[in-house]
Amino acid sequence: MTDDAYFMNEAILEAEKSLSEGGLPIGAVLVKDNEIISRGHNRLIQNDSVILHAEMDAIENAGRLDYEDYVECTLYTTLSPCPMCSGAVILYNIPRVVIGENTTLMGAENLLECNGVEVVVLDDSRCRDLFLKFTCNNCEIWDKELKKVGNTTEAKDGNSSD
């Protein structure tokens, strides 16, 4: 098993933890020097939060790291990170993001790449299946959450002529 596969499996465990708590099944781990330094999972529903996405939770749980630490990290997340989470990755100079899958939910991968972040998509069907099962069984919850962000998690490209 490659390191990416191992750490993605750990992110999936976080997504399953969120699901068991009644939340959205999205998980993340932050890795430095081939060791998990923090874990996180989506806590929007559990904490009635507007910002506790899995990636934000993992970054927060790492504590206040130094620049030298962040630039040695990789963030593993089960789904494509939204503009907010991508912004945190850019702000803290995390150079690499590994995404479980990006077909059920597209985030701001282009924003990451335009800011020099290496983006790796594993196309892991377990991430897709976990999220699709949740949205099919809890469509009213997912629709309510998605509506709060204008029904998209993609970054605006700034080229709109509206």
What does the model show?
- This protein is an alpha/beta fold and 162 residues long.
- The chain has helices at 3-20, 54-61, 67-70, 83-91, 109-114, 125-137, 139-147; strands spanning 27-32, 35-41, 73-79, 96-101, 118-121.
- Strands 2-1-3-4-5 form a 5-stranded mixed sheet.
- It is globular, with a radius of gyration of 15 Å.
- The protein starts with a helix and ends in a 15-residue tail after the last helix.
The biggest sheet amounts to: 5 strands, mixed
Using the CA coordinates, give the radius of gyration: 15 Å
Number of strands: 5
The SSE order reads HEEHHEHEHEHH
**Helix coverage percent of residues?**
40-55%
Amino- and carboxy-terminal Cα gap: 48 Å
Overall SS class: alpha/beta
Q: Can you list the strand order of the major beta sheet?
A: 2-1-3-4-5
> Tally the helices: what do you get?
7
Beta content:
15-25%
* Oligomerization category of the chains in this entry: single chain
Average pLDDT level = 92
The low-confidence parts are none
